[in-house]
Amino acid sequence: MEDKVCQKKKVYDELLASEQSYADHLDLLIRNFVDPLLRGGFVSSHEISCVFGDIKSIRVISRLILDRLQCSSDIVHVFDGLVPFFKFYLPYARNYPSSQQRLEWLRSKNSKFNEFCCQRECLPELKGLKLPALLITPIQRIPRYGLLLESYCKLTDEQSGERRNVENLLQQIDDMIKLIEQQVEDHENSTKVIAIQKGLDKLTPNLVSPGRRFLKEGTLSKMCRPNNVFHVRMFWLFTDMLVYGKRKSRNSSKYSCSGVIPLNHCCVKKSLNKNVFRLVCKDKVLFLSSEHYADLSEWMDAIDGAIQ
User: Fold this and answer.
1) pLDDT tens-digit series, residues 146-159
2) Does residue 101 lie within any of the structural domains?
3) What is the CATH number of the domain that holds 242?
4) In angstroms, what is the C-alpha Rg of the chain?
5) Tens digit of each residue's pLDDT (9 = 90 or more) over 88-123
6) Which residues form a coiled coil (predicted)?
7) Which entry of 39, 48, 161, 186 is 20 to 30 Å from 203 by CA?
8) Which of helix, strand or coil describes residue 244?
């Protein structure tokens, strides 16, 4: 019993120490970057918001948790009523990939901003930390709560009321972690769809549509008429359709759209040739091939999964 009590104390102490470090990192970020940039005038408030998000609200939440950790040993009380406020992390997590791209773009295009960042990153109080290392800390924090609470829960008596309360808290945080991960995944998927759209010619129908998700891309050989010869084409699989096209020129990164196949009336059929399969649709049949059966099999499974 004493061993578990000591282990629980260690987990609690780790939660407290890591929260102190996290709060300090947020303070460094705001004190050395956000506030001076807002006063500086060489970067717009919109650009600052794109890079740093609502980092000040996130700091408020962290400080509340830290204050409670310093005043109480009841881990459930520490998080009581605060988990709903973790929703402030959602837009930050969703925009994190694009914020990193914006940061790189600003540093390459705005010499004053780049010089400012270099000077700030060399300050002794940053202890060698670079701006990207500070910006990623909110993304890492809530999953860390989940890991520490899971360890704490395992050390709690299964029959106790505390165990039930910790399990309930852990479930709330796990739900929030899944929501954050889904937000990030949705944003990355939407960004990918937009990138595909930009890489195709203007004759391509609009690929950006509510509920549509990108699934897979790659090259396959398609049987082309009138000579029934296989030619390499680029394919993009979405949840509701298959798009294919050919490169505009050998060195071009652009593609001309050759076809859009809605999947709602399609089925995948194997062929006598193991390196060929048929995509049978309402008004046409596509014969698709690959030199590698494993690659072909992946495409068959992916298309079949999208149809299902």
Assistant:
1) 999 999 999 998 88
2) yes
3) 2.30.29.30
4) 26
5) 999 999 888 889 889 999 999 999 999 999 999 999
6) 163-190
7) 186
8) strand
